[in-house]
Protein 1
Amino acid sequence: MMKSVKYILAGILFGIIMSKSEAISWYRIQEMFRFQSFHMFGIIGTAVITGVIAVWLMKKMKSHDIEGNPISFTDKQKAWRRYLFGGTIFGLGWALTGACPGPVFVLLGQGYLVMIVVIIGSLLGTFVYGLLKNRLPH
Amino acid sequence: MLELIKQPWPWYTSGLAISFIMVILVFFGKSFGFSSNLRTMCSMLGAGKWVSFFNFDWKAQRWNLLFLIGSVIGGFISANWLQSDAPLNLSQATIDDLQKLNIPFDGNIVPSALFSWDFVATGKGLLIFLGGGFLIGFGTRYAGGCTSGHAISGLSNLQVPSLIAVIGFFIGGLVMTHLIFPLIF
């Protein structure tokens, strides 16, 4: 039971952080893609810099997770097409809806029920990717 | 304490909090990547019957679905109890730009006029939300991750593929904002 609860609690914390950081804001995403404020760049920049330090420390200290297993980080598959093409397609959707996958669900919780339409669209998009996967350049 | 949380957070607090989420999940023996849930949900809905990509042991991803449920609850808690009374502190330049596209700034977190069933019912709204969602789902799976998996987890682990993906996120976002928005709004 506690095993499951901790993931829900982490998710709740994530939902609150996404809300309070205003990273779920359609307006803030527009502001970011127009380079009219430092806000979003500051958030992502701080997260990445502290993240790099945290990952470096965990590797250096040979940390273990709460179940006692050594923490390991898997490298991403070496390629460029899938990241550039897939990333660009996602970027189009991110700017259009003002939300990436996490915020879509956080906004739903905020009471914006129209996000259900975005969720249906994203499930369709995921499904169609699965269908076409072998025919796309990766 | 509650008053402190209720205020809009400065960017450095937010950034630090996001990397804290990544670290918690690593200590739980997992990795921070939200869009994987979309693949899991497709599998749960039976997509594995037609497409082998969805034929995987999705139960191993149960933790991530719990995280997703938590994020919905977190949004609900924020909207009901942690909201600041101050309007969103959006830059004047953005307010002016959006005004030119006939999207008024209302001080909320998202433009209420767009994020409503009335707008979805216009057909154009349906196309924007359904199409936008489609691009998100297709693009994240093609790229193998979204903002959390690539921009946060990947860059923190100094992954070049993640940097390429993030560059892609911005190419797409800039094209949509500067070239396509004037055509659709």
Protein 2
Amino acid sequence: MELIMKQMPIVFNALNVGFLHTLQLFFITLIGALPLGLLIALGTMSRFKLLSLFNRIVIWIVRGSPLMIQLLIIYYFPGLVLHNPIWGGGETGRFWAASVAFIINYACYFAEIYRGGIQSIPNGQTEAGLVLGMTHRQIFFHVKLLQMIKAIVPPISNEIITLVKDTSLSRIIALQEIIWAGQSFLKGSQGISGAVWPLFFTAIYYLVWNGIMTVALGRLEKRLSYFK
Amino acid sequence: MAILEVEHIQKSFGGTRVLEDISFSLEKGKTLSLIGSSGSGKTTLLRCLNFLETPDQGIIRVNGEVLFDGSQPLKQSASELRKKRLHFGLVFQSFNLFPQYTALGNVMLAGSLLAKERPDYKEHRREIQAELEATGRDLLAQMGLKEKVDNYPHQLSGGQCQRVAIARALALHPDILCFDEPTSALDPELTGEVLRVIRELAERETTMMIVTHEMVFARDVADTVIFMDDGKICEQGKPLDVFDHPKEERTKQFLARYREQR
């Protein structure tokens, strides 16, 4: 116990730095994947059959294979196979490779949610708007958009909660996020080695952050509960 | 003069003829009931008049102005189409209220979006909005919904929803108000309150076209009745003639089946 007390400041410092990287990956994934997902969703619903087919194939590949493999391929493929290491070495390269993998992966999941949300609005809403002399643009912004947002908030919340934990997969390409930071004290780092508790303790960080996310997203859901 | 003239409307969906040579006219202030079995083309006819479907052939005229002419399929701009649509109002079977707006919000939305296109909107924004709100409240009061202006659709009964939908359609002052089976989604009790409102509109000489399966209502409220069968107008005339002395064999069959049920 006394030993743990002595290790604590060093460990927490390292875990905090690691978790900062986790959060960076989390936010950049949301910033990239939320809009990209909408583009992919609109692509799957396009009148151009080829574009629609292409988008659906991308979604199938991305959702049908493990994110861990996608991370490995995106990070190593350019360097090992094409002999063109676009990511460069070091932490920055790993971070951008992980970001790209996460954005593509999550955009595909979001795309399916968006598509569901868009298709959940009954056609009668559009027709009611049209016979009232509204333009398609007005119908989208004044009638359908809020209904879509309401429909997608719960499933998107689910994905966001999953994303918090999924960021740990980037450990596979040695991104220095919180799992990597916790694990470093097992192998030995800053004079501490063979310590298991820092790795176990990382779970608390995820729990706390997901608690915050759950409350925030729950509030958003509640704000939209005034209509059905 | 007839406010609405429809001549030789034809419509097919992928090889299936849904409307065949539909011609009729409607005088201003009169009510027309459209009856017939399901699939006889009544709803498609209303949808054609509201430009939700495009007829393959035929002419639609309102107040003498040609709104649609199948022989001259001009590519009309979206804004022209909107203007034409505003001659008609449509009340749907399933109400199609906008769930995120209150009863008053539903009635006002289209009007306030249209008002924004007026050149004097910026100067007189307050007055215009106040006027729209007054009109909206007034219409809802006429529908017996004075207490419900601030309720959202999910807080209202089906009959109340349908009355909000009627107020919403009336807010744009259509020349002809169309009803597509307005009570088919309602239980008998709620049906009564909606029919009462439509009767009142008829008494105030609102020009209306009503697709309905409520035969007693169709007969009482209408000035003219059209019986449709298999995409064609089988018989049309005064309600007493069509209901009590039908000429066509098909009309007799249809009405007889209704009497059996009651």
